[in-house]
Specification:
single chain, 240 residues, mainly alpha, 12 helices, transmembrane helix, transmembrane
Length: 240
């Protein structure tokens, strides 16, 4: 065995460059995470969570929408079946997102894919797919995606913990408009995936149906209804 082979090879410049590119690309989203991570942490403490329990929850269940839903439904004692059902309903969009992600991960094994899917939040999913489209490639750049996921996941867990710690000191953080960060982040995601008016009909149908169900039905049924309506609209529009 030669001396060069006996040493562990350093990461290739390509891998390191892609990882750093992922971090750089995700920085605007990471900054957008901070305000509503603080909001979630502060709200969780108000519902009786401890400072340690908040980052544990956000680290194990990396999905902000369902965490806000769980916190809003939290009582003492908690209605666990209701919370589990609503959390599943809100997170059901990840089934569709995961299915859309599969064509870009066919070059990976299941052992490689499953950990990556754990870190698939809305923002990481959108950035990953948009990057593939911009590179005109059907293969996800794994180092790039890991850089994106590391920034988003790390900032979410850390700042929900900080929100839990400082929330009682600053009171209701929504009075500063931090809750608008959620909406702003999703508008940025839509801007990045915009491909012209001819492709936006499923979005519009999903928005209208979700808005109607939001006013007619309690809970998070508008999430599933809007998702299914958007899928049906996409199928019909695609055939035309």
């Amino acid at each position: 065995m030669t001396e060069s082979n006996s040493r562990s090879e350093p990461p290739s410049p390509n891998t390191k460059a892609e990882f750093l590119r992922g971090i750089k690309t995700s920085l605007p989203m990471t900054l957008g995470f901070i305000p509503f991570a603080l909001v979630l942490g502060a709200q969780a403490v108000q519902k009786g969570f401890t400072v340690l329990q908040v980052p544990l929850m956000t680290g194990v269940n990396f999905a902000g929408g369902s965490e806000f839903t769980a916190i809003s439904l939290w009582t003492s004692p908690p209605h666990l079946l209701l919370i589990v059902a609503m959390t599943f309903l809100v997170n059901s969009r990840h089934i569709i997102m995961g299915a859309a992600f599969v064509p870009f991960m066919r070059h990976l094994s299941k052992k490689q894919s499953l950990p990556l899917l754990f870190f698939m939040c809305d923002e990481a999913w959108a950035i990953g797919i948009t990057d593939c489209q911009q590179r005109k490639s059907m293969q996800l750049s794994v180092p790039f995606y890991i850089g994106v996921a590391a920034c988003l996941y790390g900032s979410w867990v850390i700042f929900t913990g900080i929100g839990a710690a400082v929330g009682p000191l600053i009171g209701d953080v929504e009075q500063y408009g931090f809750d608008m960060a959620f909406t702003a982040v999703f508008l940025v995601l839509l801007k990045g995936m915009w491909r012209g008016l001819s492709h936006c009909w499923p979005w519009f149908v999903s928005l209208v149906v979700a808005g109607i169900l939001y006013h007619l039905l309690p809970g998070a049924w508008y999430v599933a209804g809007g998702t299914l309506a958007g899928i049906l609209a996409a199928l019909i529009w695609g055939k035309r």
